[in-house]
Amino acid sequence: MTLFRWEPIASVRTCTVAAERWQSVRVRVVKIGEIARRTGTTPKTIRYYEDIGLIPEPDRALNGYRDYSVEAVDRLVFIRDAQATGLSLAEIGSILDLRGRGESTCDHVTELLEHHLEALDEHIARLERTREQLLELTERAQSLDPADCVDPVRCQTIAREVDGVDASVSVHAPPAAHPH
Questions:
Q1: Which of 122, 92, 130, 123 shows the shortest CA–CA distance to 14?
Q2: N or C: which end of the chain has fewer CB within 10 A?
Q3: Residue 83 and residue 160 in one domain
Q4: What is the pLDDT of residues 98-112, one digit of tens each?
Q5: Angle formed by the axes of helices 89-100 and 70-84, nearest 10°
Q6: Mind giving me the DSSP string for 19-69?
Q7: Is the pTM above the cut of 0.90?
Q8: Domain that residue 153 falls in
Q9: pLDDT tens digits for range 152-165
Q10: Are residues 54 and 118 in the same domain?
């Protein structure tokens, strides 16, 4: 006998993040394994979200098992969808805090997404510079004669000397510090 039957009841669009709502037809509580399966997470992840305050700690059954409400399912789906946009758990927590206080989240979410777009554009620019450097190195490698390679320590393609000064090519700069 199936204890739970899940049906999507409505697609709800909040600002820029969409979450699908689920409703239990027969009962109002869900065990951790079922909520994990339904939301595409793991029980360990759900417990972690409880520990850091992203979802409230659920009621416990007499046997000590966690009993999650339908609202917890909604929240987990939102967290998963927000992570898919690139938001960090801290950023998701700030959205949930605003919503929990009854405040609008639209401006805050827009600001977070704009910040992520800026960071992504900077990362793409760094990748494009790296690509150009790799193209230059490839062209250099194709023009060099392997017989001229006499340095036992360094490859003449990557490290070279110009007028007696080491002019090693740095193909990839270390990643910039993440802003949050």
A1: 92
A2: N
A3: no
A4: 999 999 999 999 999
A5: 140
A6: EEEEEESS-SEE-HHHHHHHHT--HHHHHHHHHTTSSPPPEE-TTS-EEEE
A7: no
A8: 109-166
A9: 777 777 765 555 55
A10: no
